[in-house]
Backbone:
């Protein structure tokens, strides 16, 4: 603050506060809707404050699902989402840290070709090449499996670049010392490089966990068995059910549960999250 | 930049690169190659035979009114998403930057929408504007505006824009805030001593210094609007009503999976690939400039 202008300070607070309220409003209404009975939710206007049916609604969606006979319990879709998000995050980090290690610390024929082969994957999001990618996964027999949900999404240039960038900043003296002491490359990787990379790994983990959890089109295409449905796709699917009146209270309870894990990760790992966002864009 | 000290191993680096290269080849190069290959073929209805047709699929796309329409919608949509998103988040970032007390609390309350899946964001906003139970639709009706995104194409597009902006705002906000905080305080102080008021300081000093971040975010937002908003569209409108929210990336999916038009869909994929590669190059140019600066 350069100078004291009380009016401007008050204005700043008001604008930011208004922003916070407007941004939070959809989630507040979702929460409110998830605590009422279906009857209340069919009257117009719907209430603005929470009702008494919180536990009842959430228990119902967690154990029975949306309510129709044979629908998937959210407990199961949440588990699938968790497996997928962890698989994508851990898989991506694992394969990119070792490939960045190879590119930075070794000289071998074809090194630059490999580097560029990884680099071009940066450019094409899965949405663009969705039809042929589906064809490949189908011909490999990976439809309706966790492998099919996870593996096609873990090739990523961004993570490789992040680690490459970090490795380049590691002082050469450490490598020299390790070599003088007779450490093998893998020993150097495990005992020196990996422990040093832990902040980058944490930052990347937060970003990739959210990315994996929030996948929509991919699980929608490759899962046909309900036992592999993820929570995000079930929410959207139920919102578009044409038969009958939607049970808004249950749908919104499902939406809350779909949002909660990634939002909690961002709120509690905010430092790593901000770091990860800024660094993966470099 | 290269390392001076390296290890000498013959096979180990290939082993380490192996997993990533295999996955990239199988799930990236193979499908992308197939998209290009299929874009020059026409397959008959039963799948068996396909005929090489040069650029017929592309020619057909460019003659097709619905493709031009979809492209037009995509442009309108991405301009709106980028413009509104950048303006709102810049305002919030500038205001939040002024605040000293409680700044971190505000920040926490502004960053979380990033974590909400686009598809879920679509459901949330669809609920608020739902013609029968939506609270905002009800309020709008109270002041005489009939809002029904299920039948009105323009309103549907507006709603998709709102949901997409909401989802992206925390990203823009964080980058603008970081940009603002990296501007040296001495510059602002010098201007204040010379008698420049807050408005003058913003337009003459802060805004130009922030422009590299702004350009970078502009490109990121356009890429996001083009490719990252599939979930929002699919759970809100499914491209409808009519075809009023059918953006290009949605059309690729719709023609390929629902319409079973492999050749046409692949040709669209190839065009989108060219667009995204061009955008990525632009993005890298700006990042280079940002580093110099």
Residues:
């Amino acid at each position: 603050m350069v100078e004291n202008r009380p009016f401007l300070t008050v204005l700043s607070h008001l604008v930011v506060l208004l922003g916070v309220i407007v941004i939070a409003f959809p989630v507040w209404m979702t929460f409110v809707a998830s605590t009422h009975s279906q009857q209340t939710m069919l009257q117009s206007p719907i209430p603005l404050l929470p009702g008494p049916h919180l536990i009842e609604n959430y228990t119902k969606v967690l154990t029975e699902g949306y309510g129709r006979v044979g629908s998937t319990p959210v407990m199961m879709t949440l588990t699938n989402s968790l497996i997928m998000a962890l698989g994508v995050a851990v898989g991506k980090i694992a394969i990119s840290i070792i490939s960045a290690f190879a590119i930075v610390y070794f000289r071998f024929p074809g090194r630059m070709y490999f580097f560029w082969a990884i680099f071009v994957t940066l450019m094409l999001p899965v949405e663009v090449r969705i039809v042929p990618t589906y064809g490949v996964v189908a011909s490999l027999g990976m439809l309706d499996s966790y492998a099919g949900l996870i593996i096609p999404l873990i090739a990523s240039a961004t993570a490789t670049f992040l680690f490459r960038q970090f490795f380049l900043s590691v002082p050469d003296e450490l490598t020299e010392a390790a070599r003088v002491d007779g450490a093998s490359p893998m020993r150097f990787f495990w005992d020196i490089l990996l422990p040093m990379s832990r902040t980058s790994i944490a930052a990347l983990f937060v970003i990739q966990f959210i990315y994996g959890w929030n996948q929509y089109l991919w699980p929608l295409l490759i899962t046909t068995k309900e036992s592999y449905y993820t929570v995000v796709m079930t929410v959207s699917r139920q919102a578009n059910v044409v038969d009958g009146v939607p049970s808004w209270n249950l749908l919104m309870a499902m939406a809350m549960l779909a949002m909660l894990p990634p939002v909690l990760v961002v709120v509690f790992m905010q430092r790593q999250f901000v770091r990860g966002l800024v660094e993966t864009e470099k | 930049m290269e390392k001076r000290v390296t290890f000498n191993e013959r096979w180990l680096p290939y082993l380490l690169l192996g997993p990533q290269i295999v996955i990239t080849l199988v799930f990236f190069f193979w499908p992308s190659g197939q998209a290009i290959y299929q874009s020059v073929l026409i397959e008959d209805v039963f799948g068996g035979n396909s005929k090489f047709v040069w650029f017929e699929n592309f020619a057909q796309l460019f003659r097709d009114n619905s493709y031009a329409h979809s492209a037009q919608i995509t442009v309108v949509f991405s301009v709106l998403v980028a413009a509104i998103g950048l303006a709102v988040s810049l305002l919030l970032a500038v205001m939040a930057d002024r605040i000293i007390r409680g700044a971190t609390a505000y920040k926490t309350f502004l960053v979380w929408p990033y974590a909400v899946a686009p598809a879920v964001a679509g459901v949330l906003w669809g609920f608020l504007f739902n013609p029968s139970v939506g609270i905002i639709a009800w309020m709008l009706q109270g002041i005489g505006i009939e809002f029904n995104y299920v039948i009105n194409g323009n309103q549907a597009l507006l709603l998709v824009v709102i949901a997409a902006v909401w989802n992206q705002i925390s990203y823009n906000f964080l980058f603008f805030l970081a940009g603002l905080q990296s501007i040296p305080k001495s510059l602002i102080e010098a201007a204040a001593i010379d008698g420049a008021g807050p408005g003058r300081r913003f337009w003459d000093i802060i805004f130009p210094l922030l422009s590299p971040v702004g350009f970078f975010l502009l490109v990121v937002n356009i890429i996001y609007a083009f490719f990252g908003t599939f979930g929002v569209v699919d759970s809100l409108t499914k491209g409808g009503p009519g075809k009023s929210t059918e953006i290009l990336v949605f059309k690729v999916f719709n023609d390929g999976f629902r319409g079973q038009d492999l050749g046409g869909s692949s040709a669209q994929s190839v065009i989108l690939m060219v667009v995204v590669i061009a955008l990525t190059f632009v993005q890298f140019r700006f990042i280079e400039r940002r580093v110099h600066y």
Summary: Residues 33 and 138 of chain A are 39 Å apart (CA to CA). Chain A touches chain B through 109 residues (CB under 8 Å).
